[in-house]
Input
Amino acid sequence: MAGGRPGHGRGRVSRGAASGAGEGHGIFGPGNDPAVALMVALGPAPARGRMAGVLRVPLAPRDPAPSRLTYRLHRLWLTPLFRAVLKVGLPAYALVLGVGVFLSDIDRRAAVTETFETLRSTIEERPEFMVETLRIEGASPAVHAALAAEGPGLFPVSSFRLDLTEMRARMEAFDAVERADLRVLPGGVLEVRVTERVPAVVWRSPAGWELLDGTGHRIAFLVRPEARADLPVIAGEGADGAVPEALVLIATAAALGDRLRGLERIGERRWDVVLTRGPRIMLPEAGAVTALERALALARAGDLLERDVAAIDLRHAQRPVLRLNPDAVEELRRIRALETGAVRR
Amino acid sequence: MTDLYKTQRAMRAMRQAALTRGVIAVLDVGTAKVACLVLRFDGPGRGRETEGVGPMAGQAGFRVIGAATTRSRGVRFGEICAMQEAERAIRTALQAAQKMAQVRVDHVIACFSGAAPRSYGLAGEAEVLGQTVTEADIGRVLAACEVPDFGAGREVLHAQPVNFAVDWRSGLADPRGQAGSRLACDLHLLTVDLQAVENLVHCIRRCDLNLAGIASSAYVAGAASLVEDEQELGAACIDLGAGATGISIFMKKHMIYADSVRMGGDLISLDISKGLQVPMATAERIKTLNGGVVATGMDDRDMIDIGADCGDWEKDRRTVSRAELIGIMRPRAEEIFEEVRARLDAAGFDNLQSRQIVLTGGGSQIPGLDGLAARILGPQVRLGRPLRVQGLPQAATGPGFASVVGLCLTAAQPQDEWWDFETPAERMGALSLRRAVRWFRDNW
Output
């Protein structure tokens, strides 16, 4: 019942003041009543003050009750589903819709991509992130030259675009390189720490002379094998697959000194020890080292290596066999005939 | 009667739906204030799962999550006299309570103090059909109660079975499962003016709420402020409201009588207003701050500024001694108590063994009122405050909130009413169909 009156009174005051200000430009316009003209002449500010004083009405106490609409809206707001939709669903929908509409145009999509790419390259190509030089450490001159050939086409490059894993794989693909550690150092330096393979044996392979490391991995082809006369020689197909065993055998056979010519892989499964003059020592597939030690012991005891023996066959551990040369066989038969008194034919 | 039965059953179903949902509002539409509490039911013991009185007498099952009070408007003598104003007051209280609870409430249980409640004691008898008493038997015996002609324009507010007897064994609270051949019951019926109820229902509908129950303020105030032994042994609760004074007599945990006197604290304020020539608001303030009903020698020297805002210096500087104020208040308080005494006498309150009287309601905070009541009503008078319920704000723990707290308790632990039992098939006129269904179920 209350609430209408004071608002009405205030409305009249403000309307009077507004019309006074609004009519200021058209003082002499038609239809201006004298009161308005007088008000304009006095100026809007004092007019508003006087009018307000006349029309002020004591305010009725405010009604604390919410209106029906306010009440219903408040109840609606307290409804969980409505609240969830308004607080989460609607913003999410608006966001998706806005982004979707914006990106539906191909030019705008391209512009966004381009802006992003530009921004990205601006950051990536800052001088702090650029790699200029390649530094190789721990490589022999030949390997150094080979690795250094990778650099020039690449640099300068941002360290963000540098695929170190791939580069490492490429560097480790060189036969002579066992391990390459790559790191980007401050100052735009890409450092490569190279661990080279250590040559262990020379292999006379079907393809030619090869230099192998302790695991049997090829390091290089040798044109002149006598250049690496310090290394033991192995031969035979598949010898590179058993280099660790060969190295143990060679170490065992160190007692033979320079009489050892090398090892030969037979049938890709067992070793023969080849000496410069004297018998060939045929080793078994399993327990080759033991068998070789046994052969050396035999040689020491019976001076076996100085005799006319073609081969010492140790392939069967229970039954070592000596194969004599044809002349020695003849001689043996003659001696046996003499001993038995048989007539030589 | 069948119409009422359906209405009350619908309200009961709505109350159960609200308890399942877990949120319900209770609303006390009083003459001085409208109080609203929002309750949340959760955890074990939700609704009425346990038989009988559960732990904590049903107070542990719920929690008050929103409370609001606003000055009442458009209510006189506990009845709505101006619909728009009352609706606004209810809306204010409900919105504030919902805002505090941050929950939307759809169901409300309301109580009011006026509308001339009248009590009837009913008795009924019925044969027990089977070996033992079943719920259907209880429904039949309740339906067999002889309903008095309480006149047109009256509505049944409560119809509570207060006593059962099986074959002359009386005083049974729950006869179900007892063997016997004859079942008798006593029913307490409380009727109120239909128009007052309809006005309240309309106001609540206008607030977009479903009415899940309606109660008499006198009954719920008694449920909240009488302690358990008082309810058991017999006591009267006098709810001194602003517009009406509710009287309810409890015995054996049941309300057996309720009435209302159309006089209350507002009348005392009106007397002060007239006697001291001050506005009603000032009179209310003077009554609250300086009121009393027992004068002492000190009160002659205790001068109270009553003031005014008229601009006349003489009138604005008026003072009155507290003894004069007491001289205005006491006769009115005596008149109210004498009227209450008359109603209690009519109800036969003197015949109870324990004549305990509990004063509650906002008016009971006048100092010395219990002494005055003891002189008029009987020696055993105490001031009652409502039970403490979980989550109730400190501001709502005073005696003025007895009825709204009682409404919480009855919402959590409702008293069995007549409409809580299935009405017998004869009344629904579907006996043959029911029999056919039963035959079908028994034989297949």
